[in-house]
Amino acid sequence: MADELSALLAPLRAKIDAIDEQLLRLLNQRAAVALEVGEVKKRLGAPVFRPERELQVIARLQDANGGPLGNDSLSAIWREIMSASRALEKPLAVAYLGPSGTYSEQAAFGYFGRSVQEQPCASIDDVFRAVEAGAADFGVVPVENSTEGAVSRTLDLLLQSPLTISGEVALPIHHNLLTLSGKLTGVTTVCAHPQALAQCQHWLSANAPQLERRSVSSNAEGARLASVDATVAAIAGDAAAVQYGLQVAQAHIQDDPHNRTRFVVIGTLDTAPSGHDQTSLILSVANRAGAVFGLLEPLARHGVSMTRFESRPAKSGAWEYYFYVDIEGHRADPKIAGALAELEERAAYCKVLGSYPQAR
Question: For the whole prediction, is pTM greater than 0.90?
Answer without folding.
Answer: no
